[in-house]
């Protein structure tokens, strides 16, 4: 089976964008692929500066992923920093990465534009990500649209190395789902943990409902018909609706004469039903943290044996061994 790899940062509570853009694919692919899924704590260091918070976030994300249906019997779930081979490989890759390649990365530029203070870790983040991908001979990387450029950077870095030292790394491919590649946040922009515009997967239903009711809308008069495509409320509703419900909602948009409050209420109800099972499973898992720690320990052990092999290949190719 093909090796699939993807990571999620423990930078805050996972949100609808994370689920529909990435996590849902992890779960769909785990049956007939060799899934490697990791919690990217090294990446999170560039934004989470509180040690206790970081530790808590890591466990929380593990609980979230397991509750959503990630099955450790089928997939390998682990914490990034527990595979030190990746950091070693990262240095080897950094040494062959042109500055210009990283300067062109949009995710970095967007964060800087939003006033998020950037350190060297944030700037070189795509190289650590390349190490994550290459260390496991990953073939497929399920991600949201925001990560496609980083996968290109990874392919570029791998190609340069292979060209310089001979075939060493497997070329990965991004796997993006068209309909949920870029889930909008409560402000209509890309939903992102660092933009404070998220709708979380878990948490108090009442407070999530309040956040849904606060999603920004235009001030269009109610009776005016509206084209649903491109409307972020319609996009959010479509995540949860079956095709019939979606067509009905689209027809309502085109007829006009409805309030955005109605659409928000429909989103709240559909999302609550959609995540109800996962919520219940999470409550059970929280009572069994020993199990969660054991899953992560076994996952890291398995991941390390693969990464050690690839690191050795890179060390031998480049003359370090
Ligand atoms: P941060 O703001 O800390 O970067 P994030 O919200 O972007 O957090 P990540 O942990 O960086 O989340 O991303 C985890 C996965 O979720 C990635 O594959 C990413 O492409 C995907 N993803 C993140 N936001 C969205 C979104 N709005 N729509 C679709 N996919 C998304
Ligand atoms: Mg991100």
Question: What features would you describe in this structure?
Answer:
This protein is mainly alpha-helical and 321 residues long. It has two domains: 3-182 and 289-318, 3-Layer(aba) Sandwich (Rossmann fold); 203-283, Orthogonal Bundle (Tyrosyl-Transfer RNA Synthetase). It is built from 13 helices and five strands. The strands form two sheets. The protein has a three-stranded parallel sheet. Strands 4-5 form a two-stranded parallel ribbon. Helix 7 crosses helix 8 (148-165). The chain is globular, with a radius of gyration of 21 Å. The protein binds adenosine-5'-triphosphate (ATP) and magnesium ion (MG). The site of adenosine-5'-triphosphate has 20 residues, from helix 1. Residues 8-9, 11, 17-18, 21-22, 143-144, 146-147, 180-183, 190-194 line the site of adenosine-5'-triphosphate.
Number of helices: 13
Query: Order of helices and strands, N to C?
Result: EHEHHEHHHHEHEHHHHH
Provide the CATH topology of the largest domain. Answer: Rossmann fold
- Number of beta strands: 5
CATH architecture of the largest domain: 3-Layer(aba) Sandwich
Question: What characteristics describe this protein?
Answer:
2 domains, binds magnesium ion, mainly alpha, 13 helices, 321 residues, Rossmann fold, Tyrosyl-Transfer RNA Synthetase, two-stranded parallel ribbon, binds adenosine-5'-triphosphate
Helices and strands in order, then pairings?
Elements: E1 3-8, H1 16-29, E2 34-39, H2 41-44, H3 51-68, E3 76-79, H4 85-94, H5 99-103, H6 106-113, H7 120-134, E4 140-142, H8 148-165, E5 173-175, H9 205-213, H10 232-240, H11 243-255, H12 260-286, H13 289-318
The structure holds adenosine-5'-triphosphate (ATP) and magnesium ion.
Adenosine-5'-triphosphate (ATP) binds near residues 17, 147, 180 and 181.
């Amino acid at each position: 089976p093909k090796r699939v790899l993807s990571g999620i940062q423990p930078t805050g509570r996972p949100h609808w964008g994370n689920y529909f853009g990435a996590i849902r694919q992890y779960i769909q692919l785990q049956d007939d692929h060799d899934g490697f899924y990791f919690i990217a704590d090294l990446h999170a260091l560039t934004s989470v500066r509180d040690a206790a918070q970081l530790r808590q976030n890591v466990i929380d994300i593990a609980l979230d992923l397991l509750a959503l249906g990630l099955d450790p019997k089928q997939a390998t779930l682990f914490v990034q920093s527990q595979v030190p081979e990746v950091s070693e490989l990262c240095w080897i890759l950094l040494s062959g990465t042109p500055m210009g390649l990283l300067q062109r990365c949009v995710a970095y530029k967007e964060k800087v534009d939003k006033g998020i203070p950037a350190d060297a870790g944030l700037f070189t983040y795509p190289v650590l990500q390349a190490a994550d991908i290459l260390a496991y001979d990953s073939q497929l990387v399920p991600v949201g649209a925001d990560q496609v450029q980083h996968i290109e950077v990874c392919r570029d870095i791998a190609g340069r190395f292979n060209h310089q030292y001979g075939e060493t790394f497997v070329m990965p491919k991004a796997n993006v789902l068209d309909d949920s590649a870029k889930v909008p946040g409560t402000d209509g922009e890309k939903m992102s943990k660092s933009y404070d515009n998220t709708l979380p997967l878990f948490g108090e239903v009442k407070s999530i409902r309040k956040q849904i009711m606060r999603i920004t809308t235009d001030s269009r008069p109610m009776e005016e018909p509206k084209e649903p495509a491109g409307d972020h409320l319609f996009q959010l509703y479509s995540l949860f609706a079956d095709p019939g419900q979606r067509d009905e909602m689209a027809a309502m948009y085109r007829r006009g004469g409805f309030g955005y409050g109605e659409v928000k209420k429909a989103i709240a109800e559909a999302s609550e039903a959609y995540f109800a099972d996962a919520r219940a499973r999470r409550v059970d898992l929280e009572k069994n943290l020993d199990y969660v720690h054991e899953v992560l320990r076994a996952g890291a052990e398995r991941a390390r044996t693969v990464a050690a092999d690839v690191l050795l290949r890179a060390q031998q190719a480049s003359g370090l061994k």
